[in-house]
Write a structure and sequence with these properties.
The protein has about 350 residues and is α/β, with parallel strands linked by helices. The protein is about 35% helix and about 25% strand. Bound molecules: coenzyme A. Coenzyme A binds next to helix 2, helix 7 and helix 8.
């Protein structure tokens, strides 16, 4: 039994915001942003677009790839074949209830699918993939899962902090994970073969949306001076992230008993190109091994890895049988990685 990614999709809002556009609003400049992060642009959703809108579009793209048929009836039929929808996000449509996965389930007409959200910061997609595989594996009646990472981070940007506001963008990526008869071990193994998931909650305050939860709810008649936003301790997150990336790559290689040469591509969470380069340097891994598209999209949190997988997949950057490693880190603090035989 194997858990194979059989299709991918992505959705990014059309409104592209360059570093120069940011400099018109905040005290920053293109040179600083590029040299400190590798970011050249980000895409921001318009005011009417929520997390589920981007997620729905990414899911549709994946379902169309799965069936090779973009007609509305084919999409409806494909949605009925889903047993599970897992959506990872830090910027869901609603606070706590209902889950955004349930909104997708309804809008796709995926009547046979259970649906739930996952909160694991920027590691959300990695957690989501492992969760979906576990849920498919434990029940013979389940065959197919839709796993989505989707974010509208522009809605929680702290515009008073130039160190963080330039980092984030909006987007969504999705994959269809299917339980197949292919082997999950041995030379012909396929699909998701290993994951490492971890957390260090002692760093929770380094990436946090303080207001609006049960710890610090809004009060009746309170006048809110600043909308809820993501507060970040950039230095602490940077240090954590470089170690998390390096340690997770090492742990996955050791657990598999392979060297880096066996890995076709590493798809890291796209938070900061410097984090990836520093971790790569520490391990002696050449930059070309890492797939980076941060220059165009900035940090889209849980969406960054599935967006990258979709871009690689559609551009022919992944061949059947390639060993792909995803590596993530983020709010929680969380970290993790998957090994996928494409
Ligand atoms: N434009 C211009 N200057 C800026 C700036 C901006 N957008 N943001 C910060 N600066 C300035 C600072 O004010 C500071 O100036 P000073 O030396 O005169 O005081 C200088 O740049 C250095 O700031 P510092 O915060 O030390 O920069 P840094 O090299 O640590 O880089 C981050 C900052 C945010 C890029 C880096 O810490 C980082 O990437 N952290 C991880 C963030 C992350 O990935 N978060 C999401 C995780 S999922």
């Amino acid at each position: 039994m194997a858990f194979e990614i059989i299709a991918t999709g992505k959705a990014v809002p059309p409104h592209r915001v360059t570093n120069d556009d940011m400099a018109a609003k905040v005290d920053t400049n293109d040179e600083w942003i590029r040299s400190h992060t590798g970011i050249g642009a980000r895409h921001f959703a318009d005011a009417d677009t929520a997390c589920s809108d981007l997620a729905l579009e990414a899911a549709k793209q994946a379902l169309i790839m799965m069936t090779g048929d973009d007609r509305e009836e084919a999409l409806k039929e494909a949605a009925l074949s889903l047993d599970m929808i897992v959506l990872a996000s830090a910027t869901t449509d609603y606070y706590g209830c209902p889950s955004t996965a349930c909104l997708i389930q309804d809008r796709l007409g995926a009547k046979n699918a259970a649906a739930m959200d996952i909160t694991a910061g920027c590691t959300g997609f990695i957690y989501g993939l492992e969760t979906a595989a576990g849920l498919l594996g434990i029940n013979p009646g389940r065959k197919r899962a839709l796993v989505i990472g989707s974010e509208i981070l522009s809605r929680v940007i702290d515009w008073s902090d130039r160190g963080s506001c330039v980092l984030f963008g909006d987007g969504s990526g999705a994959v269809i994970l299917e339980k197949t008869d292919a082997p999950s071990q041995g030379p012909d193994r396929r699909g998701l073969v290993r994951s490492i998931l971890g957390a260090d909650g002692s760093g929770a305050q380094h990436l946090v949306i303080h207001r609006g939860g049960s710890r610090d709810p809004y009060k009746t008649d309170e006048v809110v001076a600043v909308s809820p936003h993501l507060a970040m301790n950039g230095r602490a997150v940077y240090t954590f992230a470089v170690k998390a990336v390096a340690d997770t790559i090492t742990a996955l290689l050791e657990a598999e008993g392979i060297g880096i040469d066996s890995v076709a591509r590493i798809v890291p969470h796209q938070a900061n190109a410097r984090i990836v380069q520093a971790a790569g340097k520490r391990l002696g891994i050449p930059d070309e091994k890492f797939f980076l598209n941060i220059e165009e999209y900035a940090n889209t949190s849980a969406a960054s890895i599935p967006i990258a997988l979709d871009e690689l997949n559609r551009s022919g950057g992944l061949k059947k049988g390639d060993l792909v490693m995803t590596i993530g880190f983020g709010g929680g603090l969380t970290y993790g990685g998957n090994i996928i035989i494409w």
